[in-house]
Write a structure and sequence with these properties.
This protein is an alpha+beta fold. It is built from ten helices and 20 strands. The protein has two domains: 230 residues, Rossmann fold, CATH 3.40.50; 121 residues, Nucleic acid-binding proteins (OB fold (Dihydrolipoamide Acetyltransferase, E2P)).
């Protein structure tokens, strides 16, 4: 079993708390993604698992072994870094074989493993090339190959795709996901890119300031964010946050954003147990850009509440249009149909899908459940 357990793990560099008392269970063969903004402690967490960084407090287990004091080479892990320096004077074969030769593996075994990894990665035809004769994506594959030949139980990957151009990144993203199912290994993958996290992870761990803000399956996190940080970090463009006051008329809860009011459907309100406490109090109204549509399309749909907004800017994306809208002091982005007639510096009616709304406490920034 290659589960990885972190128990109350803290890392301090002098006064800097890089990782602040985090606990995490990575299951055997799970593909887990640590995601968060620059400086949130992702690399430090990975380096502690690898044994490259001492743990200030807490415990780490790999499999059943307590590894706090186990040197990196005895941890049965392989790490792929962002700056995967390949040896420029060695061909691909020897770049991949190098670590095994150092460990004095028999020649035939090395040959088997290198060829097997090359097959998995589709680089069999490149084995005699030098790195300078490879494209960025091919070099990246060799770097991954170097880790695969070790046949570790756990792969640690620190932003391995960040040097690649956008198109290659998309391609490698899919390849790494496929590879994961073939390798049957545990992968801990670090990125600051929420799209990579959403598409690759069995589970995402969202970090900020050395803390875990939420961990869960990608769609669970997207649909049920625990707090404004996670709600704003996962999803693109980010969720809109509108300052409002919650009011109640009869049995109906209404979000009052001064220049517009929208009703919360009874069904949705019933699922927010704590809603009653916020009546006549400030609340943050969260709605994703993809849940705001052209009123012309959704006017008849009871889930939607129609609001007239000013169009500040439109960005045609080809398949859709990002419209930057405002009403009074509230600004929000919507992803409208490509055929929308929304035009800058004019008014436009949009529908908010009220079944998809989120409410947040303005002080704690936690979701109201
Ligand atoms: N060797 C070190 N000495 C002092 N502070 C450090 C050291 N390494 C990291 N830090 C600090 O610890 C915090 C976490 O750093 P870390 O590299 O883990 O962030 P990260 O999430 O990987 O960020 P990025 O996305 O930019 O790579 C940062 O505030 C960083 O400045
Ligand atoms: Mg980092």
């Amino acid at each position: 079993m290659a589960q990885v357990l972190l128990r109350d793990v803290t890392k301090r560099f002098g006064n800097v708390v890089a990782v602040n008392n985090i606990s995490l269970d990575v299951k055997d063969r799970e593909f887990i993604v640590l995601v968060g903004p620059s400086g949130c402690g992702k690399t430090t967490t990975l380096r502690m698992v690898a044994g490259l960084e001492e743990i200030t407090e807490g415990d780490i287990y790999i499999g059943d072994m307590h590894v706090n004091n186990v040197p990196p080479k005895d941890r049965d892990i392989a790490m792929v870094f962002q700056n995967y320096a390949l040896y420029p004077h060695m061909d691909v074969y020897n770049n991949m074989a190098f670590g095994l030769k150092l460990r004095k593996f028999p020649k035939a075994e090395i040959d088997n493993r290198v060829k097997h990894a090359a097959r998995l990665l589709g680089i069999e035809n490149l084995l005699d090339r030098k790195p300078r004769a490879l494209s960025g994506g091919q070099r990246q594959r060799v770097a991954v190959g170097r880790a695969i030949v070790r046949e570790p139980k756990v792969f640690l990957m620190d932003e391995p795709l960040s040097n690649l151009d956008a198109k290659l990144r998309v391609q490698m993203r899919a390849e790494l996901s496929k590879l994961h199912s073939r390798l049957e290994a545990t992968i801990i993958y670090v990125t600051h890119d929420q799209t990579e996290a959403m598409t690759m992870g069995d589970r995402i761990v969202v970090m900020k300031d050395g803390l875990i803000y939420q961990a869960g399956a990608p769609l669970d996190i997207y649909n049920n964010p625990d707090n404004m940080f996670v709600a704003g970090f996962i999803g693109s463009p980010a969720m809109n946050f509108i300052d409002a006051v919650l009011v109640k008329e009869g049995d109906t809860y209404i979000i009052d954003a001064k220049t517009f009011k929208v009703e919360i459907p009874a069904e949705r309100a019933a699922k927010i147990e704590g809603i009653g406490k916020y009546v006549n109090k400030p609340i943050v109204f969260g709605i994703r850009p993809e849940d705001i549509e052209d009123a012309a399309i959704v006017a008849e749909d009871p889930r939607y509440q129609i609001v007239e907004a000013d169009v500040d800017v439109t960005e045609p994306m080809g398949s859709e249009v990002y419209a930057y809208l405002s009403s009074g002091e509230s600004t929000f982005i919507s992803r409208l149909d490509a055929g929308t007639d929304a035009k800058p510096e004019s008014k436009h009616k949009v529908g908010f899908n009220m079944t998809k709304i989120h409410l947040f406490d303005p002080d704690t920034e936690n979701v109201v459940r």
